[in-house]
Amino acid sequence: MDQKLSVVIPTNDRPASLPYALASLRAQDVEDIQVVVVNDGGASLDDVVAPFRDDMRLELVTNPGNLGPAAARNAGFEAADGDFVAFLGDDDVLLPGHFDAILPLLADGSADFVYTTTKASTERHELSGEGYRDAVRVFDYDFDRDFLLVANCIPTLGVVMRPPGASGPRFDENVRAAEDWDMWLRLAAAGYRFRHVDVESGIYHRLPRHGGEADPAAAQARALRFFHDSYTRLCARWQVDDQSLTAKGRSFVLRTYELAFSQLEESKKLLAPLWYEHMVRAVHRHHVGELAPGDVEAALREAIDG
Hints:
The chain is α/β, with parallel strands linked by helices and 306 residues long. Helix content is 39%, strand content 18%.
């Protein structure tokens, strides 16, 4: 295949995890790959990326400050020169064969936006399927625009897409959380054809956080409020019929936030590491008719409690 691939990695002061992401790209069997690392206002990355420059075409873009993930990805768009653009988080890894599963669908013109199944791990392992054998399958949903309007179910690390062009959609730089969800909805509205490939090729990490805080539950509640507020703003932007199945799904997501805040504030118990992923699973099961409305609440409680 003659097409070129660009991979955009936004990063901010994660010098310990970034080499894992870069090593996972080095392990891919792709002849012409450009890796654009966007340093979003963090410390110098010259020494971090230096060991990889001989193995890949790597460009380092430095933002003048911490402008946020949307601005970082947009800067990556501007520097990317590939026929297709992929995304990878600085704390994520791709397993060998990831691009082999995606690029043919883009090359033959049958899709504009392709994503694979994503797994999550609460620990970092050696880069292999065996090393991540305990990772949990979390996002494996075929494309459904109505469900995408409920919640983000497509992590950025599994995505490869046709570039939007000079006049196409960009990540909204005023959105500091769930900016990828907003972007996927923009692309769908612009007519992009989405395709899911059920190959487990992306791993992202839910490593322990807030443990070093004086009040871990309060710290997690503050972070949760940030995402809750972003979710409600984006729901207002992407309005749906109040009587629709999509609106019902959104009510379940908001109910999960209520339950989560209650757990953090009253019992001071941290949320389960993969609470969001399990919440999405429960809401999706309701969306496709696998879970009765009366059983959703129990599933949501189980998601946050673990």
